Amino acid sequence: MKINISKAAQFVAAGSIEAYEPQVKAAQEALEQGTCPGNDFLGWMHLPSSITPEFIAEINETAKVLKENCEAVVVAGIGGSYLGARMVIDALSNTFGWLQPSDCPRILFAGNNIGEDYLSELIGYLKGVKFGVINISKSGTTTETAITFRLLKRMCEEQRGKEEAKKVIVAITDAKKGAARTTADKEGYKSFIIPDNVGGRFSVLTPVGLLPIAVAGLDIAALVKGAQDMEAQCGLDVPFAENPAAVYAATRNAIYQSGKKIEIMANYQPKLHNLGEWWKQLYGESEGKDGKGIFPASVDLTTDLHSMGQWIQDGERTIFETVISVETPNTSLAVPSDEENLDGLNFLAGKRIDEVNKMAELGTQLAHVDGGVPNIKISIEKLDEYNIGQLIYFFEKGCGISGLILGVNPFDQPGVEAYKKNMFALLNKPGYEAESKAIQERLK
Questions:
Q1: pLDDT tens for residues 22-45?
Q2: Catalytic annotation, pick one of 231, 263, 277, 285
């Protein structure tokens, strides 16, 4: 993985990115020594290097049981409990599904909303399908996931019988406490632990992400190896200029201080759409506090050049871009020649479609830079487990450093609870009587 900041550095004062080196060093030391805010959630820091072959084998063995007994597996989880897995699976699986390995079930995602139509359609689809469930929840009481699991548990037991259902329902939850742990122990489900010191948005390299990814037929050992190598490249002993996470954190903070308040992640590979969704949670939930924080947004290019492109090119100059570039596609396809050439595209005949895409990428970068948009470019060799593993750890480490530079606790999310209190009060949940009364007064 490579990072190029030359098209971003020109928008800030000379030396201002390098001037962040002492702050970056201090943030890295605080992360390593556990002296930073949120230091009880630093388990992700050396998670890749702690993963053993035996642990990977246990994940793969459970994945094998699900693959042998299911046509579909529903991953029930919200936020970090599904975004990482979905990002990896979508990036590395066939977009249209027909080349999926024959021994792998279809992976479905639920428990991430409270949409009645969505859940009704899911239940309708599953009526004729042998399915299993991976229920991901540390507490077991998160409303979106808990409602979904109630529905799926009952349906799976009706379809297979209670004893058989136990084989295809897996719990990923707290080691000792919570409703999901109690249910898993009572019902006898296979279970994996969400480490106490790893927050949800940093959990993709725990069983939260690794089990669904393995069920999809992907190589989790290669994913972990990529993250392990990036962990070493982003270590405290690596000089600032050679440390990609340090350079990224410093660059985005320098740009933020210059007045650019929105970071747009752009990709030119449609399979990376959900990388943007995972990244938005990682950075938005980590940095958006105390009236501070870069707003994370994402676009899929060239698609969104025909919608958001106008705003990016000519809109308010409060944005910068981080572009994910994939150097080599996994396939080979050329533009055909056409005898009539009515579309005027014969000048492209014989060229790889990826070459056309790369020129669109370069042309867009030049146009956006000319239009006043700083541009950070992150390149990976190709779309595979190893390279995605590198991206995961790179963005996680960059996030921890960047949040500390910004002066916030990157590992909590107090604002997430605000809507829940109001929702529970409106639903008359026991224990929320006072809040319910106050809300009713506001609604008069």
A1: 999 999 999 999 999 999 999 999
A2: 285
